Amino acid sequence: MFRVAVDVGGTFTDCLVLEESTGELRQFKAPTTPSDPSIGLMNALKKAATAYELMVEGFVSQIGLLIHGTTLATNTLIKKDGAKTGMVTTRYFADVIEIRRGYKNVRTS
């Protein structure tokens, strides 16, 4: 069995694979495909499968845990290049995107 962590970034998709039986940790990398991030993710998984001499289907069937992370939403907010989007929020949190995790002097109403 494998434990896999995949991080889809703006430039590269990183894949870490832990082989549970040996404790061996291996890293794989593929270019991210911004038009369809799933392609970059699958390419990273294919590289991992090849390293273990498995077809991607066989490799994926042996994944007991898959952790997925991405910065794509954050990058879209920072670059302001995504679809026009609204945000629903609760009272006092309207500026959460603007301040991110910074200090907040005055609450907005």
Automatic annotation (TrEMBL):
One of its GO terms (cellular component) is cytosol. Transmembrane segments: none annotated. Signal peptide: none annotated. GO terms for biological process: glutathione metabolic process. InterPro entries: Hydant_A_N (IPR008040), Oxoprolinase-like (IPR045079). It holds the Pfam family Hydant_A_N. GO terms for molecular function: 5-oxoprolinase (ATP-hydrolyzing) activity. This is Hydantoinase/oxoprolinase N-terminal domain-containing protein.
